[in-house]
Write a sequence for this structure.
């Protein structure tokens, strides 16, 4: 159990957050086709892992391909379901809300209206969508958006109404669409007396998670189609229960069923925790991969009165290990060696490079570091006047001699480390070629700050004017 | 060749001539004895005057020193001249002393030469043999034995 002592509080938070995300995904998507396909893809992935682990090369390769394609397909095909699950009214509902459907339909009004129509032999077809999008199954609907009332339902299905033959969609207490055409069921086991209306109800129910109520025009019988079943409902109370169950209205769900639901969610929560814990251990505890990285060294908390004059190295060589998934995902910049200079003194400082200097991403561990120490030389910045000197290159024409050089300004004020400036007395211009000189003159050029750690003091300019004086060379041959 | 002449009552002329070529090819970076020296002219006995300060009267870079006279003074020399001289002459030398010619190539000390001075006036020089790697800006610092810089000469070695 010694590994328990290595678990940090961050790891617990990590597992909890991801377990909750998984659980919420289950809650939001459960019962939808998208969820079933997700389960299928997960099964495929597990199968592929098993196939790979026992050395089934072709099988694992093929399953991997199928899984990859399926992952893309699911996003495209089930985009509406995904959008419906994620488009909740507020963040609280998204993070904590119960899976009950938002906004209940006035169940009692609907039940009463349905049986009224049955008595009057008015045929009717009422659709109560579930979580799935019905767009690809239905067509021909006319937007209605009327609040549900008994009178309105009766008038819609009144035989002389032009839209009475179609179905209506009831959502959130509103008749959303009327005159909707549904796909017919192709099942052969349906009773022969079922007409087009019943076949349409069965056709939509078996393709989606919608509940469809159908009222027979001939017999006045009320039936409910859900999933692959279509059955007559004789009592309004029974229909009421069907509707409340479908719409997840808690007061309509029997206590036993509610308890079952709670147990189901509890099991899902525990399973989510187990799955994520397993994945977490797989990610962080399988320390099977070692990688060597050259990592830049970052110096922190440098005392303001010092400059870094010299360091013995710019990057350290780290040998890291962890699970292959985490090691592979390491990117440049994620790992740094940080050296704290807050206690550094002027001159040479030696700092050890240890685990404390190297903040690593979770799941990545340090095996070895080279070198184990770093030398940092700090210096105090000072200001110094450096004499400007022209950096002549090339060769003067044979007949000329450069006898005198002056510069304006003669000196330039620079700022740099005292150790550097102690040895520096001259600031040189950029190279100036002599080859084309013919007579005394002047030229404008710039100075070159070397080493680059030197800076021009405020008020100093890098531009200088060099005046040069040429004379005819004495008539003596050069060596 | 050495020659000395007495003139009564007050002036002493003392010439000391040594060949500059004695020091050609001296290794860099070593402290050396005077490369060449000459007492150019004597002054009244210093004991009768206030303490005098070493005065650098002339300092030039040249291609050659002939008869203790700088020849072909310049600020830029082609590397092909082979050697460069730093000629210095001093006045009011109160007592025998030493000076240093420190040669810096791009601010890095390349070589230094220790030179002796004798009262009352003295001229002396140091020389550096040139190599291809010596191209670039140079400076020569003339300092006394306490390290006080008496003068700085700047020049360049070109192609």
């Amino acid at each position: 159990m010694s590994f328990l002592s290595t678990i940090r509080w961050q790891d617990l938070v990590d597992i909890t957050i991801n377990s909750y995300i998984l659980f919420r995904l289950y809650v939001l998507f459960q019962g939808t086709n998208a969820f079933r396909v997700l389960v299928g893809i997960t099964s495929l992935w597990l199968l592929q892992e098993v196939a790979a682990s026992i050395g089934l090369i072709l099988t694992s390769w093929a399953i991997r391909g199928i899984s990859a394609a399926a992952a893309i397909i699911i996003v495209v095909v089930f985009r509406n379901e995904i959008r419906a699950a994620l488009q909740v009214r507020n963040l609280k509902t998204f993070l904590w809300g119960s899976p009950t459907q938002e906004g209940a339909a006035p169940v009692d009004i609907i039940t009463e209206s349905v049986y009224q129509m049955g008595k009057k032999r008015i045929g009717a077809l009422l659709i109560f969508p579930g979580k799935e999008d019905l767009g690809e199954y239905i067509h021909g609907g006319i937007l209605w958006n009327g609040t549900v009332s008994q009178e309105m339902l009766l008038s819609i299905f009144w035989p002389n109404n032009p839209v009475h033959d179609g179905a209506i969609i009831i959502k959130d207490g509103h008749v959303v669409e009327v005159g909707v055409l549904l796909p017919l069921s192709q099942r052969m086991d349906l009773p022969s007396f079922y007409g087009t209306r019943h076949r349409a109800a069965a056709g939509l129910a078996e393709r989606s998670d919608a509940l469809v109520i159908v009222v027979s025009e001939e017999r006045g019988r009320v039936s409910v189609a859900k999933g692959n079943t279509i059955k007559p409902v004789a009592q309004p109370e029974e229909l009421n229960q069907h509707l409340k169950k479908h719409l997840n209205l808690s007061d309509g769900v029997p206590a036993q069923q509610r308890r079952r639901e709670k147990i189901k969610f509890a099991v899902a929560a525990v399973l989510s925790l187990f799955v994520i814990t397993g994945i977490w251990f797989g990610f962080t505890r399988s320390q099977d991969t070692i990688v060597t990285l050259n990592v830049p060294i970052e110096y922190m908390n440098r005392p303001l009165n010092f400059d870094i004059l010299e360091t013995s190295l710019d990057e350290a060589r780290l040998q890291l290990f962890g699970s292959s998934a985490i090691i592979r995902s390491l990117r440049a910049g994620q790992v740094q060696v940080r050296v704290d200079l807050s206690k550094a003194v002027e001159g040479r400082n030696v700092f050890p490079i240890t685990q404390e200097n190297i903040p690593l991403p979770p799941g990545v561990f340090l095996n070895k570091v080279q070198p184990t120490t770093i030398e940092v030389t700090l210096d105090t910045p000072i200001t110094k006047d450096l004499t400007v000197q022209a950096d002549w290159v090339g060769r003067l024409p044979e007949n000329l001699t450069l006898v005198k050089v002056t510069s304006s300004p003669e000196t330039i004020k620079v700022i740099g480390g005292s150790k550097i400036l102690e040895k520096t007395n001259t600031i040189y211009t950029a190279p100036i070629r002599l080859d084309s000189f013919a007579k005394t003159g002047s030229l404008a050029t710039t100075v070159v700050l070397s080493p680059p750690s030197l800076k021009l003091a405020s008020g100093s300019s890098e531009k200088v004017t060099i005046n040069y004086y040429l004379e005819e060379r004495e008539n003596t041959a050069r060596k | 060749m050495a020659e000395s002449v007495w003139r009564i009552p007050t002036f002493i002329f003392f010439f000391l001539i040594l060949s500059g070529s004695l020091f050609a090819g001296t290794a860099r970076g070593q402290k050396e004895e005077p490369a060449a020296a000459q007492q150019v002219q004597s002054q009244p006995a210093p004991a009768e005057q206030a303490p005098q300060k070493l005065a650098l009267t002339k300092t030039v870079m040249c291609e050659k020193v002939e008869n203790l006279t700088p020849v072909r003074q310049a600020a830029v020399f082609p590397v092909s001249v082979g050697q460069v001289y730093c000629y210095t002459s001093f006045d009011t030398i109160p007592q025998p002393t030493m000076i240093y010619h420190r040669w810096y190539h791009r601010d890095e000390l390349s070589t230094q030469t220790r030179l002796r001075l004798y009262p009352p006036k003295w001229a002396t020089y140091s020389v550096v043999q040139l190599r291809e790697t010596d191209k670039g800006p140079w400076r020569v610092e003339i300092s006394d034995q306490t390290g006080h810089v008496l003068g700085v000469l700047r020049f360049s070695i070109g192609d």
